[in-house]
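Duplicate of #3305? Posting structure anyway:
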């Protein structure tokens, strides 16, 4: 990948004001042909490229010929302010402003091609005609990477933009053949059906990256035609999905799926799949019968398990062997004094484990609820390969300390401990305080590291 150029307006103006004997002569830049200047501007972000238009009359329209990235992520701050202040009544006004700015830039653009087209704003059905024209614009420019991130502040999946809702070949018109240029497709809060996705996969032989998040109309995904280039597939929060069938993706390396319990996952002819992430209710189901995962467990080198709904996650006492897993990431919830040490069965199933990461979302038990905590099984792992331990949202609760003690006491050669105490629950607080410094948690992890891994490099965030 070409190194991104840091060419700002102030630097160009500074160069223009220097004398001929200076190292940066204005004539040296001015003598370059427009084609080279355009190639340079194509390495910048859209915002940086547009800013160069003030340098001189010649530079005014050079940015319009760029062939790099058209990244329309200039509304994130506005959306965060609307969300924080709960001022949803002005959202339609901001949508109109965003659409107008995008249309103005697209009407000015004269480049023959673009590498990337990215939209990021809360847009819904009301913007359908504009988004349709943007997609046709991008395909007309033979775009390689297409991203529509239409994440909603007030979630209403019935109001999602329908991607290629009409017959794709007729909707795209003369751009029908250009869709084959796509190498990356990223859709968030976009309604894409299985039929449309099948059409895309069948007509995009160079696709390497596919990510679909929160698509309410996706029921079936079947990859039966050869996709020799596909390396990354991610399907998350598509709660109507019933069937995910991948039978011809020989170079697929990363699969991330998070969804409902009843989804049928079928995998075949994926010999290079080494990075697997499973989440949602489906993960809670598969954890209890992991040996039924439809791939060879010996393939997996990186595994992520996200248990996002259960407050008392339970792992089987005997977990299937994962003999080649080198990185294991766990995410789960815990409440009160309930132990999560049963996850040790997964850790002990990974004899070559090098890096372990735990993100524990811990909350205290309501004061009016009493319980008797049953003693947990004592695990005895001696993993000489484990070198890095990462504890995310470490709050110093008894549940988290129990797990940290087990990890550090049973892995004698840990070289680095990363404890992220940010956005963790502050013990002893009446309310759930997440945005203050957790001093007690930091002191707790220092004591644990000193006691069990005194030579390890300790990083506290």
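Output from current build:
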């Amino acid at each position: 990948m070409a190194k991104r150029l840091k060419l700002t307006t102030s630097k160009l103006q500074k160069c223009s004001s220097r004398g001929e004997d200076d190292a940066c002569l204005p004539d040296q830049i001015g003598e370059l042909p427009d084609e080279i200047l355009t190639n340079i501007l194509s390495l910048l972000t859209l915002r940086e490229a547009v800013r160069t238009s003030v340098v001189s009359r010649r530079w005014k329209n050079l940015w319009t010929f760029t062939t790099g990235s058209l990244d329309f992520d200039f509304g994130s701050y506005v959306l965060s302010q609307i969300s924080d202040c709960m001022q949803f009544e002005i959202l339609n006004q901001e949508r109109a402003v965003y659409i107008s700015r995008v249309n103005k830039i697209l009407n000015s653009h004269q480049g023959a091609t673009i590498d990337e087209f990215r939209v990021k704003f809360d847009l819904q059905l009301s913007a359908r005609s504009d988004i349709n024209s943007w997609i046709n614009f991008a395909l007309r420019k033979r775009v390689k990477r297409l991203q529509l991130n239409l994440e909603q502040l007030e979630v209403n999946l019935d109001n999602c933009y329908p991607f290629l809702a009409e017959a794709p070949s007729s909707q795209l018109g003369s751009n029908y053949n250009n869709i084959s240029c796509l190498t990356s497709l990223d859709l968030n809060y976009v309604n894409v059906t299985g039929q449309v996705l099948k059409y895309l996969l069948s007509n995009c032989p160079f696709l390497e990256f596919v990510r679909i998040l929160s698509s309410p109309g996706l029921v079936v995904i079947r990859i039966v035609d050869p996709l020799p280039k596909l390396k990354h597939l991610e399907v998350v929060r598509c709660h109507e999905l019933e069937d995910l069938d991948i039978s011809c993706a020989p170079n697929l390396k990363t699969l991330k799926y998070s969804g409902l319990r009843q989804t049928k996952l079928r995998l075949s002819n994926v010999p290079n799949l080494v990075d697997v992430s499973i989440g949602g209710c489906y993960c809670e189901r598969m954890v209890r019968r992991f040996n039924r995962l439809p791939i060879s467990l010996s393939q997996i080198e990186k595994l992520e398990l996200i248990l996002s709904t259960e407050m008392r996650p339970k792992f089987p006492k005997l977990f299937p062997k994962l003999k080649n897993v080198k990185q294991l990431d766990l995410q789960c919830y815990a409440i009160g004094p309930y132990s999560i040490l049963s996850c040790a069965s997964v850790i002990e199933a990974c004899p070559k484990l090098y890096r372990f990461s735990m993100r524990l979302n811990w909350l205290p038990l309501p004061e009016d609820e009493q319980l008797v905590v049953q003693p947990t099984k004592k695990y005895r792992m001696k993993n000489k390969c484990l070198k890095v331990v990462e504890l995310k949202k470490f709050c110093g609760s008894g549940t988290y300390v129990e797990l940290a003690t087990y990890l550090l006491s049973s892995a004698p050669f840990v070289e680095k401990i990363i404890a992220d105490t940010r956005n963790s629950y502050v013990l002893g607080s009446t309310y759930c305080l997440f945005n203050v410094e957790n001093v007690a948690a930091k002191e707790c992890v220092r004591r644990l590291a000193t006691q069990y891994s005194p030579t390890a490099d300790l990083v506290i965030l």
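Confirmed duplicate; merging threads. The radius of gyration is 26 Å. The mean pLDDT is 80.
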